[in-house]
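Batch manifest, entry 17 of 40.
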Amino acid sequence: MNVCAYARFSSSNQREESIEAQLDAIGSYCRQNGMALVKVYADHAKSATTDKRPQFQEMIRDAEKGLFEAVIVHKLDRFSRDKYDSVHYKRKLKCLGIRVVSVLERLDESPESLMMGSMLEGMSMYYSR
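Output type: structure tokens
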């Protein structure tokens, strides 16, 4: 399966090395699960409380081109810290046949995982505010 990695750090509380650590964990996850990491997107000093992130938007455009079958993130809060953006972009990706997979939060399509994912999105938004 061809996948991409999305990593980011926000300027207020993380450092550049954070992206390297996220990508190391994602690379290990991909190797362990037989996934081909075909592209890396990384937003530096960008908050996930907005979708105005250049690499994030490039990833969404590339998804529309069918370049990968899943987006791998270290944690779901790297994808978004706005629950509405998260739902919007996950839905868009799902319609394209693309899953969002978290290395640390092992969620599947079960009702329990869907509920947990929603709770994590809400907590990320709360934490950012």
